[in-house]
């Protein structure tokens, strides 16, 4: 008798498939923020370039796997490096992500793929023998997750509900960045100001040979190899209140602090906001440099929870703004943080050492042909060719030099040059 009742009970709980699917779609809609963006620029030298692409697909042909890319490239010494990076960097990054990953694994693989893509772009551009260089600030937005990779001094800031402004990039300027000064001198570069007649020193700190003020960039073949293309990478998850990103070249940041830029355009839609930031920068400083700004709003869907009121204590809130995630209760924490409008930090790494950035491979990066692949340029390696990222490095803490990822001889040479282990490839023409 009991089994019959049970069966009856179960039957009662069944939901028609169509209803389930529509419920699923509703949740999907609810979860997915929309992205609005605007762009504004004033040109002085014509060396700033940008990329805005809102229709990239993680799984080609699947519109629900869409993500957006926004980037700024501030060129110097010509615009070739900026244009080349705009046209090729995205593909190099995406090609460095293993195929067939689900969304979460894809997002986890992104920081490492960004490093590989930046280094590959730099290596390919340098092989063309052109001497220009470029900063890159590269932003990938997949629903609530924002991943930023950056070399140079174009900056990306985040303005969130409650008015807390945080920086998602680190400026690679010798003037402001002590760690980078130390790294450059340790790798064999010299750091100093321009000397003028009579021994006076003027201007910002520069790196010699080459005289560049930046310590990281793509291109710049005529400076030392210790000017590296390895990006600082930060990945955060926005709360369900969304947020505003302001991505801009140093024409903005030389004139405005991050707070000033954010405040100057609050309450305006993205398109007008970008114009307002540029206007504000020019009002403060005049047009001394190319000045480019992209504003991106990640907007919660209509039926989401109303944003929480801003916390009373701003400084306390700043400490709360980023919370490192611990894996045990990550999703619970995520929900809690989301409810109070706090941004969750998923990943942050700024080291200029490739062995730190490409990590350890438990699963070797085998290509479809069954051969190993170079972790940077994705070329197939014969078994005898691959050199582990961890092999024979004086900085290596790895006890497993045979453990992947592996580099081809060419990329291995680049790695050594960037770490100052072989004479820099400076060609004095």
TrEMBL record:
> Would the keyword Iron turn up in this protein's UniProt record?
no
* PROSITE patterns noted in UniProt: PPM_2
EC number annotated for this UniProt entry: 3.1.3.16
Q: Its Gene Ontology molecular function terms? A: metal ion binding; protein serine/threonine phosphatase activity
InterPro entries referenced in this protein's UniProt entry, alphabetically: PP2C, PPM-type-like_dom_sf, PPM-type_phosphatase-like_dom
Segments forming domain PPM-type phosphatase: 29-298
Q: What class of enzyme is it?
A: hydrolase
**Transferase: present as a keyword of the record?**
no
Q: What catalytic activity is recorded?
A: O-phospho-L-threonyl-[protein] + H2O = L-threonyl-[protein] + phosphate; O-phospho-L-seryl-[protein] + H2O = L-seryl-[protein] + phosphate
Q: Which cofactor does it need?
A: Mg(2+); Mn(2+)
Q: Which SMART domains match?
A: PP2C_SIG, PP2Cc
Keywords from the named record: Hydrolase, Magnesium, Manganese, Metal-binding, Protein phosphatase
Q: Which family does it belong to?
A: Belongs to the PP2C family.
Its recorded name reads protein-serine/threonine phosphatase
Q: Which organism is it from?
A: Daucus carota subsp. sativus
The root-end lineage is:
Eukaryota, Viridiplantae, Streptophyta, Embryophyta, Tracheophyta
